[in-house]
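Here is one such protein, fold included:

. . .
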Amino acid sequence: MNGDNTPRRLAIIGAGSSGLISLKHAIDALPNWEVRCFEESDRVTGAWGRPYDGFVSTSTKYTTQFSCYPRYDATVRPDGGASRGEFFRDGEYGEYLQDFADHFDLRRHISHGCRVTAVRRPAGGHGWDVTFHVRDIAQSASEQFDAVIICTGLVAEPRPLGDQATLADLRRLCSTAGLAEITGKTVVVIGGGEMAADFANRLAQPAAGNRVYLSLRSGIRVSPRYHPIRGVPSDFLRNRLMLSIHPDIRNWIGQRFVAARIRHQGWFEWLFPSSSKTQNDAGGDVFEQRKRWGRRLNRHARHGLFDMFHNKSDDFLTAVAEGRLQVVGPPTDATLTRYEGFDGDAPQQITPDVVVPAVGFRSRLGELLGDQTNVSDFYLGCCHAEHDDLFLVGFARPVIGNIPSISEVQARLVTRLIAGQTPRPDGVGRLNAADAAARRERYGGVDTRLIYPVEMFPYCDQLAALMQAGPRPRTLRDRWTQLTAPATTLDYDFPDDNRLDAGLPRPPRYLPLPLIMLLFALKPVDWLYRSVPGRR
């Protein structure tokens, strides 16, 4: 309570996946607070509820679900990925979020049709004045809150490429029907991120009748949803034993392993036989071209295997292999008609009808806070280094992984910090400066003012350690499962958690046993490497 016996107030800005999970944990951790969530739209499904027909999530249902609301196990269907049944499809993730909101009775705390336009420190220096525009009455209002959690994420906004009439409106393309309007055109998609690869693949579908080019400055890490050897989701081959190896060692071995796997896939299939028939079993020229392009794109990636974002699209490589999508180098002039060749190919002269500038994002933090605040001002991507009552959830981006599960661990931490259940680390400003410098060095190709790049589980482990909630297996069998089964945030031990996951079967081990033994054999090397001063 405040001094006048009125309840303290928390504002949550945004009711997508990160806003919903923050709201749920705020209600749990702050029972005597008034918690209000502002949402501009009339939905609680966020950006990925049903972005377009045919949507398939890049992470599995098992690894993306909230640990406090588990509904999916790690079972793999015996169809080699034909159904994509292990992933959220079409509107399934939106349905999951709606069920989540209903199950925990969250909707009564959400103010729809309210766009927050400003968050300012009042003259008295305590709390925050939150100004918002109410759609139905077309006017603005302002209310004071004791703490604020910003869950708006990033807004797609291309970097300046010129003023050519061929440039598409990226915001419209991100709408449900945006890309469907582009048919029978010559299209150049500029960018190497997951959004660019997704746009290019969808525009290159045969029914659209487009001639599509993807313009890249360097190679990209293509990590298919389904592992081409094992025939199971790639998510299910990442376990805590693998992730416990120092990233320098994992990068060195992993890059060589991926290159060898692409070059000698037949030998790997014989060495590690799978019970699932993979989609690649058809063979033929398309299969060989997929391998060739996977090798070329990975070879020219600028950063280490675990130091840059991955594109998880099985269909993207198929589109390139079938010739529906051509890869070219960067544009050489402002007309966007001349392009370097990729990987030694000849330069290209292209006259595009449409140029899709999928090369940038914008944060609303500066707009909301009225200053130059950016993500790098927040320790661990969620706690402001100066203000102990201002937080972010949902701005961390995993090189491999998913945002909702990371957001849940962030939400648990920030609500516990607000409640005083977890102490704020001493010297946050100093810690944040060191952390920001380390991320700039490791993730050299990422603008860390906009994005907080992370390795999903090492990062979540760091947050869980602050809450003293790291994985605590109760038996040797539990320990073996946590080390060798698919990594998941279900492993964390939150004693006050009210989740009901007892009905989920114990997850199986999908990584072949010889590779498990190899990882155990690497642990002494890992320990020795970490003992070198300056390495952790």
Q: What stands out?
A: The longest strand covers residues 114-120.
